[in-house]
Amino acid sequence: MKTFTYTIQDPVGMHARPAGKLAKEAAQYQSVVTLLKGEKKADTRRLMALMGLGIKQGDTVTVQVEGPDEDTAAPAVEEYLSANKF
Fold first, then answer.
1. pLDDT in tens, 35-50
2. Domain 2-83 falls in which CATH fold?
3. Which among 15, 17, 40, 56 is annotated as catalytic?
4. Hey, where are the domains in the chain?
């Protein structure tokens, strides 16, 4: 399993549009990409679960990537988050 932390930069947090984009990005990989905020966690491919985390600007989340292509998926998802200023 690969993990990294990321601080949300989007002024309105994780709303429908960025959650949908992240879900599409994560769906490209065989690995499961999970976001954790406090005690809550959500598979990034499940849009409603992702939005249910209530992630706001400035929140730091932990991203876990586990599966056969985790070595490729983890850095790609981290780069995707940074490049799109989530």
1. 999 999 999 999 999 9
2. Histidine-containing Protein; Chain: A; (3.30.1340)
3. 15
4. 2-83
